[in-house]
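Standup notes, structure subgroup. Blocker cleared on the 2-acetamido-2-deoxy-beta-D-glucopyranose input:
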Amino acid sequence: MKRIMCVALPLVVFAVANMCYGMADAAEVKPPTTYLKWHYYKITNTCRDVEEYVRHEVKLFWDNDRSITPKLLRLVYSDCFITGCDGSILLDEGPNPEKNAAQNRGLGGFVAIDKIKAVVESRCPGKVSCADILHLATRDAVHLAGGPAYPVFTGRKDGGISDATSVDLPSPSISLQKLIEYFKSRNLNEVHMTTLLGAHTMGRTHCSYIVDRLYNYSGSGKPDPSMNATLLGSLRKLCPPRKKGQTDPLVYLNPESGSHYNFTESYYSRILSNEAVLGVDQQLKNGENTKQTAEEFGIGFEDFRKTFAVSMYQMGNFKVLTGNQGEIRKNCRYTNK
Ligand SMILES: *[C@@H]1O[C@H](CO)[C@@H](O)[C@H](O)[C@H]1NC(C)=O
Ligand SMILES: *[C@@H]1O[C@H](CO)[C@@H](O)[C@H](O)[C@H]1NC(C)=O
Ligand SMILES: *[C@@H]1O[C@H](CO)[C@@H](O)[C@H](O)[C@H]1NC(C)=O
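Run returned:
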């Protein structure tokens, strides 16, 4: 039996105010304490139309290249999970910026953020943080890709330099238990985690992150026994055994979304039929709560969309800087001097 839980987000009336979802550990979900505000720039009269400026720019990028959506999603995730949602992932500054960490290889979307920031600065100089721009832009890109138009509360400030050595993002071969603990340390429970991993409904990854599953799983000399044989065959063609110095091709995380880069529930149905590309995704089938959530989302696109909205909201509140705790950078790549 599925239990249904409804979470009312605090403060506001918006399209998805009441979010209901079935889950095993519902009691753990609480709306986070936050000092962020709904339409902060409007109510403080600092940049009334910033959300429209961002939406307009994101649409231009998306029309030109749909991969903007997974790129921004990954940027937000990397930003929030490392030192909190403070825009530190955007910095080029310091001896070894966060973005240079091995786990952040292949990050994209920086050029889009620079362009949006330049437009916003031209309208409202010195008013809108890079951290907020990142969240607003990601929300708009997710919506364009068929995802929910979730609420982004604003009023974040930008943080200072942070070092690549502080990056502790999990590897694609982390165990399920460790992954659950990792998300928990960021105030995210198993439902949030399973939902946020749904960002892998689109985007690409390098073969080097999956070759162990294709040829030598856990040093066994054999492929991952949990991988669907049809998928194994097609991925082996795309990712031949790698020799030193060879290129590292890209493969779609969800071949069903592929070059459309759209938001679909097939990420979950594929996990259930052993067709997840990344090991970290496939193992969601092995946990009681994570499997139950995948089963629910695999047949319930609306449940997935709504819970994605809640989970992005929750993640976007992690360790935010407000008031005098940070600054509003002029250029997202550098702190103000
Ligand atoms: C598989 O991995 C193990 C452990 O890393 C290694 O010792 C072994 O040589 C590998 N086997 C093949 C066929 O590459
Ligand atoms: C994703 O895009 C493909 C191709 O346009 C389409 O067939 C599919 O229905 C889309 N899925 C969703 C959920 O929008
Ligand atoms: C493997 O994937 C194929 C293609 O999607 C599907 O038809 C088949 O049922 C799957 N096999 C298993 C054992 O789930």
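Discussed briefly. The two ends are 57 Å apart (CA to CA).
Next: hand off to the docking folks.
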